[in-house]
Design a protein that fits this description.
This protein is of the alpha/beta class and 323 residues long. It has 11 helices and 11 strands. α2 crosses α9.
Length: 323
């Protein structure tokens, strides 16, 4: 028998066997529970969206998908847990930009990882912070807000806090219009909303989910939303982009995995997330919570994260936040 033929046959057999391993792995995944890490407390927008996603993934994966809240260190505790996890698809992260690109917030805290240590899989949804006034206010548009600020020599606007999206948009807005807009940081919607309803501020920037009941009750009126597109729940309200104002970043919520995760596995996860986000049940849950479904595939989401990271870096540098 020809020894070279034997060697070739043995080598071909080995190649076929070992070459089949990734395929077999992809077909078998998942064969145990999957964890989604959320770097914020239970009950908030991030958590509720992640749990809706987990329910949908559980159905398609035929394995439990469990949400775990790892809170602390400016969202980097949860982010670090994903960055350091095994790249096997069993530990996913559900992150906003603060956890996806923590290095741009280095003026506030030090993260144990950076955006280079994780990989975007798909965007799922977006939050919609909105500028609003009381229903009886004479302010009917953001142009009216700017005109009032010019007339009064400045205007106070309630926001969740410094360096939040509406606060950053106000900086851009004030610079473009050459007016003074003072950021009154309330620390969250739970405090900003009563202040607006009580007339302590004329304009407030509050998440649409928190505003919606008061809008439906005829107590508040929306002027603009801080989003890429108009809201399905309020299609008549323009975005700040439409009004000519820049957004330093888009408030996207999406799925991330450790950097070393294979692209084959990323594609499988991307397909599963796409299925869930396009299902009527998921859309209904998001609408009920006033959260905008905003799916992006891996390629589009990675470009968006890179764009937002670079824009935030430029914004903070311009504001003198880096030493």
């Amino acid at each position: 028998m020809n020894p070279w033929r034997n060697c070739f046959a043995a080598g071909l057999s080995a190649l076929l066997v070992y070459g089949a391993v990734p395929v077999a792995f992809a077909q078998a995944y998942p064969d145990k529970p999957v964890t989604i890490i959320v770097p914020y407390p239970a009950g908030g927008v991030m958590d509720l969206t992640a749990r809706a996603l987990a329910d949908g993934l559980t159905k398609h994966m035929n394995q439990p998908v469990v949400v775990v809240n790892k809170v602390g260190a400016g969202a980097t505790m949860g982010g670090g847990a994903v960055a350091s996890a095994a790249p096997d698809g069993y530990t996913l992260g559900f992150f906003p930009i603060a956890a996806a690109a923590p290095e741009v917030f280095r003026f506030a805290y030090t993260a144990p990882y950076s955006s280079n240590d994780i990989k975007a899989v798909a965007a799922v949804a977006s939050t919609a912070l909105s500028f609003a006034v009381r229903a009886e206010s004479p302010l009917k548009s953001m142009k009216d807000v700017i005109d009032l600020a010019r007339q009064k020599g400045g205007l106070q606007i309630g926001t969740p806090g410094k360096q939040t999206l509406p606060s950053m948009i106000m900086v851009k807005m004030a610079k473009k219009e050459n007016v003074k807009l003072e950021d009154i940081a309330f620390g969250g919607d739970a405090k900003t909303l009563p202040a607006l309803l009580g007339g302590h501020i004329e304009v407030g920037a509050i998440d649409f989910a928190a505003l919606k009941p008061s809008v439906l009750a005829g107590k508040l009126r929306l002027l603009a939303v801080c989003a890429e597109t108009r809201l399905d729940s309020a299609p008549e309200v323009p975005t700040v982009i439409e009004l000519g104002y820049e957004m330093p970043y888009v408030s996207s919520l999406g799925v991330f995995v450790p950097k070393a995760t294979s692209e084959d596995l990323v594609r499988k996860l991307e397909e599963l997330v796409a299925k869930v986000t396009h299902e009527p049940q998921f859309g209904a849950r998001m609408k009920e919570m006033s959260i905008q479904v905003a799916y992006k595939d891996a390629g589009s989401f990675r470009k968006a994260v890179t764009r937002d990271r670079d824009n935030l870096e430029a914004f903070f540098r311009e504001q003198g936040m880096y030493k």
